[in-house]
Design a protein that fits this description.
Chain lengths: 382, 231
């Protein structure tokens, strides 16, 4: 096998292929990246039985073939090569990489043992890449990182005719966002759902954020449950998480008339400042009145802090106790200059009603996107 | 169990010689015959002790010792080695004896046993359709914590740990190998269940086809903070 390839194109392709490889694997060949020649250039692939990545790039092929080399090492080398065409050639079990004055010799791994990558089924629909990347970053923050409940370590994707809903929760909060979905020619059953590991989906969002349109294929039959994302000659597939996602959308209140509108940046700054004196896991107390909102950090012997900022209150005064990190995750995800915090009432004295965080483009104009972040407040300690 | 608090000095003669000058100390005389000398420090360790079998004899002090304030002398003699512990009692401040009865012994690991009991009661935590066959299923090399069947009726061996380490995976692997030789059970799959599973243990388990399940002890025993959660 022998080929020549552009340095930047190759480096980008290798770094894409190895990004989703696991840190530790019990099968060393899975840490490799497979390089195959095609009629027009090269195909680079990685696969660990859960996630696969594949990309095609242009190259000048002198002699066709297939090689398997250590993925991370190749990615490190490719990113450091001088600015010159890269030449690959195989010499028995060794692979020689020459670029300008630099020369590397790598050991090739047995390519025959490498597993076959999953096949991508027919396209289920199209997604606008930027909106999808945005939605993933907004929703995935709420996904659980706790192995106790594997089902909620994923982001639930729900497709209806022209709509994709992303949902994630860790039982303390729920984040939901809807974006456009174009089913195109495909005739879908009424609703299809796919539960994708949050970490994988976040990488997919970052990878395809500037790709224009992403093609999605969901196979959700009994024995095979995978999802594939394709754009720009790149494909990522992931196994779906098995199990039923909890019906969390019913937790959202129908309508709320008791809410406050606050400048998002000001609130984030104030929360970060005041929570400096908090003990770990402790909550901040927020008192909303017509004069604004007062943040108080209490409950620590060492130090206390408080701060008041402007807030536009609609409805009656309200006091809630919120964990600062959970609130910051929601505030960081609304992506709007102002934020609306809505309060729900409850008859249960042992469990305060959840607060709803939504975007707000100005003091009296709700935000354009459908993002909703529902957060359970702590009990108020008097 | 006899507890004596006394002002005393202690001399040990035998393989090691030691002397404790006069001070107030706690003397424990246990039913098994052992004698322990404790101070109000050094945590759980006695200052000096004599292991059973040993004999305690109380002797009158000679006039010279009596002049120094010694009221009585306890000679504790080890029956086998002949080592000698001599306790010179100057003043007894407290002396009581209690019958403690038979001790049930140390529970090997309370949490692990409790986790086993709770998981047996809530076997559906492993998945829909799971049914308990029995706890402590006996194999030739020891008991498997739980034997269950999955929704399809296939056998599942469950090893329960507080902290899931490589050792636990190895243990379960040995059980599985043995159980899979039994035509009445085979094929047996494994579940490694723990409150916390180390990444290396998880990798090894998955490589061997063993499923990992993280257990939430607080939730299983109903000590849940549900008021701070949405659901």
């Amino acid at each position: 096998m022998k080929f020549q390839v552009n340095r930047d194109v190759f480096s980008e392709a290798v770094s894409f292929a190895v990004k989703l490889l696991p840190q530790r694997t019990t099968l060393p060949i899975l840490s490799g990246v497979l390089i195959e020649t095609t009629d027009t250039g090269l195909k680079l692939s990685s696969f660990d039985y859960e996630v696969s990545a594949q990309t095609e790039i242009a190259a000048t092929i002198d002699e066709p073939g297939r090689i398997l080399v250590s993925g991370r090492l190749l990615a490190d080398i490719a990113s450091r090569l001088p600015n010159a065409p890269v030449q690959f050639s195989t010499e028995e079990s060794r692979i020689s990489v020459v670029c300008g004055s630099a020369r590397f010799t790598l050991l090739s791994m047995p390519v025959e043992e490498y597993p076959t990558l999953p096949e991508v089924s027919a396209q289920s629909g199209l997604l606008p890449a930027e909106a999808f990347a945005n939605a993933v970053s907004q929703v995935a923050v709420a996904a659980s990182r706790d192995d106790v409940t594997p089902v909620i370590t994923g982001v639930q994707l729900e497709v209806t005719e022209n709509n994709l809903t992303l949902v994630a929760t860790d039982r303390y909060r729920v984040a939901v966002r809807e974006i456009e979905w174009d089913s195109g020619e495909a005739s879908l059953p009424e609703t299809i759902t796919a539960l994708v590991p949050a970490r994988t989906l976040q990488e997919i969002g970052k990878t395809f954020g500037h790709s224009g349109t992403i093609s999605v294929a969901i196979t959700n039959t009994d024995d095979r449950e995978i999802i594939a994302f394709q754009a720009d000659q790149k494909t990522v597939t992931s196994l779906l998480i098995k199990g039923n996602f909890p019906p969390v959308k019913r937790l959202f209140p129908e309508n709320v008339d008791n809410y406050a509108v606050i400048n998002t940046g000001e609130l984030i700054e104030a929360v970060r400042r005041v929570s400096l004196v908090l003990e770990r896991e402790a909550a901040l107390r927020f008192t909303f009145t017509v004069d604004g909102v007062t943040l108080e950090a209490i409950g620590s012997e060492q130090a206390q802090a408080s701060e008041s900022i402007d807030a536009h209150l609609s409805g009656g005064d309200m006091v809630v106790s919120l964990k600062p990190q959970f609130l910051l995750d929601g505030l960081g995800a609304v992506h709007s200059e102002f934020v609306r915090i809505s309060f729900t009432r409850t008859d249960n004295p042992n469990k305060p009603g959840p607060v709803l965080i939504t975007s707000q483009s100005s003091k009296d104009q709700p935000g354009a996107d459908s993002y909703k972040y529902l957060l359970q407040p702590n009990l108020l300690l008097r | 169990m006899r507890l004596v608090i006394a002002r005393c000095s202690v001399d040990y003669a035998g393989r090691l010689s030691a002397h404790l000058p006069i001070a107030t100390r706690l003397l424990l005389l246990k039913a098994d015959g052992s004698v322990l000398v404790h101070a109000d420090s050094l945590s759980y360790k006695p200052l000096n002790w004599m292991s059973p079998p040993c004999a305690v004899s109380v002797i009158e002090p000679d006039p010279e010792q009596a002049d120094l304030g010694v009221a009585e002398i306890w000679k504790v003699t080890q029956a086998k080695t002949g080592d000698l512990l001599v306790i010179s009692i100057h003043e007894v401040l407290h002396d009581t004896t209690h019958e403690l009865g038979v001790d049930p012994g140390l529970q090997k690991d309370g949490v692990e046993a409790h986790l086993q009991k709770l998981l047996a009661e809530q076997i559906e935590l492993l998945g829909d359709g799971y049914r308990l066959v029995r706890r402590e299923y006996m194999t030739a090399i020891g008991p498997v914590d739980i034997l269950a069947t999955d929704a399809a009726g296939a056998s599942v061996a469950v090893e329960i740990k507080r902290r899931g380490d490589i050792d636990g995976v190895e243990q379960l692997t040995r059980y599985l190998e043995l159980m899979n030789r039994d035509p009445r059970l085979a094929p047996v799959t494994g579940v490694f269940a723990a409150q916390e599973i180390k990444p290396q243990a998880r990798t090894l388990a998955l490589d061997r086809g063993i499923r990992c399940v993280t257990l939430d002890y607080d939730e299983m025993r109903g000590l849940d903070d549900s008021h701070s959660r949405l659901f």
